[in-house]
Design goal:
By secondary structure, the chain is α/β, with parallel strands linked by helices. Helices cover 36% and strands 11% of the residues. The chain folds into 3 domains: 40 residues, no CATH class; 258 residues, Type I PLP-dependent aspartate aminotransferase-like (Major domain) (Aspartate Aminotransferase, domain 2); 128 residues, Aspartate Aminotransferase, domain 1 (Alpha-Beta Complex), CATH 3.90.1150. It binds pyridoxal-5'-phosphate.
Length: 475
Amino acid sequence: MKTIFEKSNGIDGISLCDNTDDISFLNSKFLRSEKAALPQLSELEVLRHYKELSDMNFCIEKGFYPLGSCTMKYNPKVNELLANLEGFTNLHPDMADEDCQGALELMYKLQESLKKITGMDAITLQPAAGAHGELTGMMVIKKYFEVKGENRKKVIIPDSAHGTNPASAHLCGFDIIPVASNEKGQVDIDALKLILDEDVAAIMMTNPNTLGIFEENVLEISKLLHDNGSLLYYDGANFNAIMGYTNPKLMGFDVVHLNLHKTFATPHGGGGPGAGPVAVVEKLKDYLPVPVVEFDGDKYYRNYNLEHSIGQVKSFCGNFGVLVKAYAYILMMGNNLKKASENAVLNANYLKEKLKNAYLLPYDEPCMHEFVLSGDRQKECGVSTLNIAKSLMDENTHPPTVYFPLIVHEAMMIEPTESETKERLDDFVEVMLKIADEAKLNPEKLMSAPHTTPVKRIDETLAARKPDLKFKLEK
Ligand SMILES: *Cc1c(COP(=O)(O)O)cnc(C)c1O
């Protein structure tokens, strides 16, 4: 497909006003000497161009999107409408508190809801994403020990963890100590005991973990860590499995981040914006970034005075539009948040049971909101997990997350979410079984997939080593 610059044919639009603005006050060194090289096309051709582009894209409105660890659920469109209300979009974050009571009330009430959902005592809405929340949480933990006069250097992270966990802890200056998983896909307690010493600041855990398995020994782990004077960090990026059933506080965690753009209905996958609120227990409350939104019984206000605050991690109060959507979603769902988790878990277990004969299921345990298959059997026919992923694209299905978590060979991490019907799940099962059959009968077809997408196989090594991101118009 041609770019809009290549399609440009010099057609001029009409201007509704005379272009006679006096710009002589501008310093001439900032003015162009030539016309900006903007594409020129008729309105109809512009519309066709962008429609054609959007048709090449895959999105949740087009088909099933079982991207494990990413919770690609359907996000009600009414949330967009609410986030676009003029009363919100015309606000400036520098306005005085008394002039934006509505926005502050919304943030305060969202804070209260998320505190209830996580069981925690205090929260910041400021971080812009999950990884940013992790960094914020680890900065809080670091400062907490600094103020206590303890110089703890280590953070323990299970080998199944999301890659952002070690990255965030490392960025805060911690040394990463990995802990192995046992045969049930859970943290190996004996291995944990061996590495636990007075230098350990915290453990970062995901529960259910990235295999989609609930850590049964989480209470024992939290006791071990707390007895050691250490803290527990909960990666709550995927909260979809537990909402209303349990929470990180009950499991003994001290700090948790949530991904509003996964669990709480903000579309993602296009690169944002997102929000990664961080909630903490009482003793860490004064370490949160400022401002936090508070209520004095009469007015809502931004509080910049927290004794040990780590400072600001993002401008103002964070990505406000995302907060509006999350709050609308939570209000709309009410007690049905619990039902969402129930259905997310049911859907994942349904798919797991339907697929576990055709594909290897390395940890055959009841799963939570997601599960991980291995493509090892198909690999014996020469068909890799990458080939399976590419073949799914020919079937109008987004591939699952592949090659993660790292502890499973040829991993395929599947998360259907609660927003899919049984019919849609059955379609996916049918497609996956067809691919498993083809791996035996016609592996070449899978190895050269995709055949029907606008972009076929790309040279991934070349793309990574020599990215060519600039478009140059041939004159
Ligand atoms: C998505 C995810 C993250 C990172 O969140 P971002 O918003 O992408 O930074 C961290 N941990 C887990 C388990 C995740 O699934």
